[in-house]
Amino acid sequence: MSKSLALLAAFLATLSTGSEPIEIGRRTQFFVDDYMVDNRWSLKPKTEEVVRAFHAPLKHHANPVIAGEGGYVSAVKEMDTGRIKLWYQVARPKRDGKGADYGVAYAESKDGIRFERPVLNLVEWQGSKANNIVWRGSTGRGASGAQIVRAPESARRGFRYRLAYHSSGAVKGRSGICIVGSQDGIHWDAAGESLIVSLHSDTVNSIVHDSDRGTYVMFCRPKDRYLVRGAGDFLKTGESRRIARRSGTDLWKPWTGEPETILIPDEFDMQCGFNRFYGMHARWHEGIYWGALLCFKLNTDITTELAWSRDGWHFDRLPLRPKMYNLGPPNAWDDGMVCGSMDWMEMGDRWFLYYAGHDGPHESRDRTPGIGLAILRKEGFISLRGPRGGGVVCTKLLRWPGGDLVINANASAGELKVRVSDKTRKPVPGYDYADGAPFQADRTDHVVRWKERPLDALRGQSIRLECFLRDADLFTFQARL
Question: Quick check: pTM over 0.85?
Fold first, then answer.
């Protein structure tokens, strides 16, 4: 093995096992799990604990931001203009009453709340081209589950946007998961389209690029061996509604291998009535796969839960299964199904996330769709919460790469203090709790400082961070130059 390959193997082993000292680099470190945590405890262990707290995105009061249409949604914020662009699934019943036809619609907004649906006159839909439909596949027979793919510059083929979609109703040899490119997000290069996976997966098919491992991973709901067309009852067909993955090293060339199941409902899901998974939109961010898992109560409700993985194979979920988006109240526009996305848009210190809602259950043909907006604190899905009497979160041994310690925390009702210790938890001189001022505010980018020395002085050393939390939430930390 070459030296470079050996270094990569060692790095990936650190990512998956948390071997100490952990090389944190410049990435944001999350407390979604205990990967970075050596221990956590309260100062009043008989009555209080340091707990992991989930923070659901809050639905916006202006919802739905797009009314009367909408399905699986994907979003991009343009760095040069600040405009937010949405692509979302639209559907219409087939003439024979069996199933639906699908297309991809487009909308854009200056503020992420008020959206324009331009009349583009590109694609015939319900007898007219006076609509905002931009794509129905290269064959014109249907496109479903469309998602924008984030990719490195070398894989973009000069396109500003890359769309992954399921080619539904396509001719033989052109049916499956396809990639197509566009310069403006409206006009798509049908001639350059690539079929990367010949697979029937009529749900959101989310492709992410894992830059650590140099691979693309797709999360899908394949029907290659379950619910085969022409088969009979469930004894023969099985059940396709679970989450599987496929992977490839090239975004534009056919992938090899077979889909492998990675998520099926467990006993707690079934106890809650959500006995199927409908799909999962995913995003790779700061070394973690983040999933918006669509939980299906056969054959009525669909809700969205948070899932995450550090390797793209083994996904975790919170034990009590809180919802990213609850169903709306009775008679609300989203009281039947809510299908979330991980395409968050960074808007200052907040994330904007979009989701598809329906005012009826899955089995209803009379439901009306829409697109909703929900707002979350930046990188704020999960925190470690210190109790009223105080508690401590102690990290594993990590190698400090230099720079300041920047935290995302809310201590506006209490306080947060940090000390630096060594392998045996002996405080490093000059970095004890008393050497720094307590943080008593709410910020996503607070720089922790000590009186005498900057933390950059410990560059290259193996240290622990011990965070005292009293009535405070700690979301993330990062080493920043």
Answer: yes
